[in-house]
Amino acid sequence: MGVISEFKAFAVKGNVVDMAVGIIIGAAFGKIVSSFVGDVIMPPIGLLIGGVDFADLAITLKAAQGDVPAVVLAYGKFIQSIIDFVIVAFAIFMGVKAINRLKREEAVAPSLPPTPSKEEVLLGEIRDLLKAQNNKPL
């Protein structure tokens, strides 16, 4: 099998395609969460703590000099990234929790007992005949 045919077999497997779709959707979800945190969650939090915009929180380590930009420790953006992560992790946790609940409900669903094989039916008939013979008075 050539390298190209092996690659084709690998690339069209269901798991690879599912993973690619998941990555694309995850990237889009990440943008939505970043916007949600930056544009919806952080402004009210900043207002509650005195009108602070987290994106502007920074410590200047070295001021700008001529063409050299300032060296800034932007801890506000780091705080915002942590909140982004917590929201994404919580959303994924809730999704996995819902999927696990559905799986448990599937497992609990009663299933029909398996039908006995021909051998089991025959052995049952033999057992019943032997019982009947042993219970006959002599």
UniProtKB/TrEMBL annotation:
Signal peptide feature range: none
Topology within the bilayer: Multi-pass membrane protein
Record flagged with keyword Cell inner membrane: yes
Entry GO terms, CC: plasma membrane
Regions that span the bilayer: 78-96
GO molecular function, one term: mechanosensitive monoatomic ion channel activity
Classification via InterPro entries: Mechanosensitive_channel_CS, MS_channel, MSC/AndL, MscL_channel
The keyword Nucleotide-binding is annotated on this UniProt entry: no
Subcellular location: Cell inner membrane; Cell membrane
Keywords tagged on the record: Cell inner membrane, Cell membrane, Ion channel, Ion transport, Membrane, Transmembrane, Transmembrane helix, Transport
Superkingdom per UniProt: Bacteria
Biological role: Channel that opens in response to stretch forces in the membrane lipid bilayer. May participate in the regulation of osmotic pressure changes within the cell.
Subunit-level organization: Homopentamer.
NCBIfam families: mscL (TIGR00220), PRK00567.1-4 (NF001843)
Family, per entry: Belongs to the MscL family.
Protein name: Large-conductance mechanosensitive channel
Organism: Pseudomonas lactis
Higher taxonomy: Bacteria, Pseudomonadati, Pseudomonadota, Gammaproteobacteria, Pseudomonadales
Gene that encodes it: mscL_1
